[in-house]
UniProtKB/TrEMBL annotation:
Coiled coil start-end: none
Compositionally biased tracts (Basic residues): 1-21, 28-38
Transmembrane segments: 71-90
Similarity-based family: Belongs to the GSP M family.
Biological processes annotated in GO: protein secretion by the type II secretion system
Lineage: Bacteria, Pseudomonadati, Pseudomonadota, Alphaproteobacteria, Sphingomonadales
Membrane topology classification: Single-pass membrane protein
Protein name: Type II secretion system protein M
Cellular component GO terms, alphabetical: plasma membrane; type II protein secretion system complex
Domain of life: Bacteria
Originating organism: Sphingomonas hengshuiensis
Pfam families found in the cross-reference section: T2SSM
């Protein structure tokens, strides 16, 4: 039997049991990790087995079809993919592009008409009298519109909801031709139906 001695040469307690305990603990930890790894592998194997089972059933079904049936199934799948592509991707993209082009044309037409109305001069030219806010409201009423008009920071803002587009153009042209009020900014969006718009117009007195 071997007796352990300390640095002074005296017999000391043996640490073999302690080392053995540490070794046993490491062994148990290793076994737990191996068990966890085995469980993860079993789950993956089960998932792979399910996928392989589905693929196997599909392959068996496909092999059981005749050549004519395979051609029919392939043709049907191609037609279905084409329908999904056309109505799920192509049609929505075309509709969005057409709507964007219509909005651009509408905005360009409005801008051109407003600029043309601002350049027109009548001889003699009769200007509307009264405060700018009253002029904006009265000209809108003449065009058959009822905007919400507010004045802040030296500018007049008029808001229209679901208004006829031709009436909006007529109103802006009337403001430009019968007063010194300028149109600073026009924001327009499509309304609830074709030919109707939601507009916000900012005037500069």
């Amino acid at each position: 039997m071997r007796i352990a001695r300390n640095r002074h040469g005296r017999p000391g307690p043996c640490r073999a049991g302690h080392r053995g305990g540490r070794g046993a603990g490491r062994g148990r930890t290793g076994r737990r990790r191996a068990h966890r790894g085995a469980r993860g592998m079993i789950v993956r194997l089960r998932r792979n087995a399910r996928i392989e089972g589905v693929l196997g059933r599909f392959d068996a079904w496909w092999q059981g079809l005749s050549t004519r049936e395979r051609v029919l199934v392939g043709t049907l799948a191609a037609l279905l993919a084409g329908v999904v592509l056309v109505y799920g991707v192509v049609k929505p993209v075309q509709a969005a592009r057409a709507q964007a082009r219509a909005d651009i044309r509408q905005a360009e037409t409005l801008l051109a008409r407003v600029r043309a109305a601002g350049r027109l001069e009548s001889a003699p030219r009769t200007l509307a009298a009264g405060p700018p806010q009253a002029i904006v409201t009265s000209t809108a009423a003449t065009a058959g519109l009822q905007p919400t008009v507010a004045e802040a920071n030296g500018a007049i803002t008029a808001t229209l909801t679901d208004a006829p587009y031709p009436a909006v153009v007529t109103w802006l042209g009337s403001v430009a031709s019968t007063s010194t009020i300028g149109v600073r900014r026009v924001t327009m969006q499509r309304g609830s139906a074709s030919g109707r718009v939601n507009a916000t117009v900012e005037f500069q007195p």
